[in-house]
Amino acid sequence: MVTGVLGSRAQDTRDAAFVRRYEKGNVIEWNTGDYSSTFNFQGFAKHPSNFMLAANSNWYTGFFLNYKWVALQYNWGIPGTELDNKVKLKHTSFAFTYRRPKISINPFYDFYNGLLLQKRRRSRNFDAFRDMRYYTTGAKLMYYTNTGKFSYQAGSTFGEQQVRSAGGIIVTATPQWQRINWVSPNRSLIKDSLTYTLLSSDPQWVSLIAGAGYNYNFSIDKGKWIVSPAATISAGGLKEVNNHNLIQAVFSLQGWINAGYSGRNWYSYVNAHVQYQQTNLIIKKLNGYGDGVSVTAGYRFHSLPKKILGIL
């Protein structure tokens, strides 16, 4: 995985009694965590049958380096921690972030080359769907209020100091494209006719959702300890690309919390997050669910006295 971060360190006009920048602007981090992603296809009205696909998620670990305006991150899966450790499936992810005190823009791309088919509801037994591919790409835009006293970065990445407790409203918008590509459809794998019809039609759709939420940074001991819970709710519409169906509804909920130590040189925090999205395709509901936990430990450092390659 490779990520990038762009921002600036222009004159800070925020209230220093609430928010302060750290003197050292570069960081190196170690992180580890676990995540899960499931896709549940649910019928309407007289066709309530469910069908669930899941990413073969696992525990991961890795490192992150942010030096001036460049950031690089590399994570790898820990062997033996997969949802089904007898199956090897590929997941590719890319993200980029442009961040200012009032806004952030986060383009993203995810590709799952193979998914797991749950044999029975609430069962831990799976079959490998090696030729089922899921793509998604888009951008998450976020706008923050009360930035004179509230720092989203202080609670999300521990990159600034929240000296006194404060919060702000978050306004979000996410344009997105998604596609499910079943390379070799086979009726013996999916008994439900509606689900088979949907997945074998190479469905893809574009959507736009917008919403709002709230994030509050609880500051303890002048910002040395931070607890930062947040939640957002969004709604919008989607249009299926390969047919003339009408625009359908999309609904999304997100929640997360970060908690840990934020010092001048060292910092460490725990993150937990959950996301639910209901997408109403023309013949099935696609309910996407994801959650995860992670631990991050980082060190802040000054820039070198001379530029690297004349640009950094």
From TrEMBL:
Pfam families assigned to the protein according to its UniProt record, in alphabetical order: DUF4421 (PF14391)
Name assigned to this protein: DUF4421 domain-containing protein
Organism: Niabella soli DSM 19437
InterPro entries, sorted: DUF4421 (IPR025535)
